Amino acid sequence: MPTASSSRLKSSARSRRVPSSDGIEEDGLSQQPTQDDVDEGGSSSEEEQQPRRKSVKKEKNAKKRGPQVEDDNEDDDRIDVRNFRDQPLDRKDGAKLHGIAQDWEMTRKQAHQGSFGLVNDVAISLADVMDGDQAEEALAEVDIIMRDLLDIEQEMISHEETLDGIYQRLSQGEAIEGVLDMYEKGVKTQLNDFRKKTSRQKYSKNERYTKFKQGVYEVQHPGEAIPPINEFIPKEDADDSDDDDDLEVGGMTQDYKCPITLTILINPVTSQICGHSFSANAIREFLGNTRKAKKCPASGCNKEISLGDLKPDKELEKKVKIAARRLRREEDDSDEDVDEVIE
Question: What is the CATH number of the domain that holds 295?
Fold first, then answer.
């Protein structure tokens, strides 16, 4: 059965609609926007409102920040670091440089306060427990560490002395320009002068290195005087002739006996006046309970000492114990050799 097409249905529906007398309904229908019109109109209105809201926010933020400074003015107030000259220093700035030099000194002492003592203790312990080639190889490595520490110390001293030299010139009223270049050049000059020296020139007269070598030698050769330090440092081309080395005096023989009891030191204390060491109980008994000073009981010493001048010597106590152990081992070895000969 044939069906009516959609066009026919629409035309019949329009034919059935009765128009109103005043035409209001038709006008109202004609004024209603289509869905496409609504979508286009809504999107256009929103787009118009968004930039308006953004402009309002910008105006509010600008009011809060206040007036803006132009970039040209900011550039005028900046310092041209690349073309800014070093300002000359005068006497008022000398105190600052002196303080920096003291900081270098304090840092050096704090950094090396325990380092040198630790290296000395390690070397003495190795000398005590090792013999022959094994001991020589191990002690050579410790010797390198000690020299490295001395080199670092000298570098820090170069900074101290250079700053102190500039400070002295400022204290005399001299105005110094280019202080940074002067400081860097002064440090570099001192380091170069030190590095040009031979090993003997660097270390043979260094108090820390001498003490290091002496401690090892006393353990390995108890009761013997240490030879000149130069004998432990190979000679280089820039060193003086061997004839000049003959003038150098060797170290003193370390005596581990108390001058009062004539026996090995026990809990040794050392006088800060004359440097002699005693067993703690023996010297306290000799001086009595008074603070009155008495002549030092060590042979040939004319200095007067009191209880307040005596300080416990832990380092000497370690050496005494190590030397005593080594002597006992040597005595035991000699007794075994005698027994073998008898058999």
Answer: 3.30.40
